[in-house]
Amino acid sequence: SGAPMPPASATAEGRKYSAPGMVLIILLPTIAGINLIVWLFSWRKES
């Protein structure tokens, strides 16, 4: 059974990419959610 936490070396390596990675992790679902909300509102107005 694998442990949920990666080894310390992996986390230290991943720290280099944590800033742009976090931005992507936050931005992508936000953009997707905004697009979904905008699509729902426009779809409701048309129907």
Please specify the SSE layout and strand pairing.
Blueprint: H1 8-14, H2 18-46
Give the structure's gist in a few sentences.
This protein has helices at residues 8-14, 18-46. By secondary structure, it is mainly alpha-helical.
Describe this structure in words.
This protein is an all-alpha fold and 47 residues long. It has 2 helices and no strands. The protein has helices at residues 8-14, 18-46. The chain is elongated, with a radius of gyration of 18 Å. The N and C termini lie far apart (51 Å). The mean pLDDT is 79. Keywords: Membrane, Transmembrane, Transmembrane helix. The chain crosses the membrane at residues 20-41.
Summarize the main sheet. Answer: none
User: If you compute it from the alpha carbons, what radius of gyration comes out, rounded to the nearest whole angstrom?
Assistant: 18 Å
- Low confidence ranges: none
Q: Helical proportion?
A: over 70%
Question: Outline, from the CA principal axes?
Answer: elongated
CA-CA gap between termini: 51 Å
Keywords:
single chain, about 45 residues, mainly alpha, 2 helices, elongated
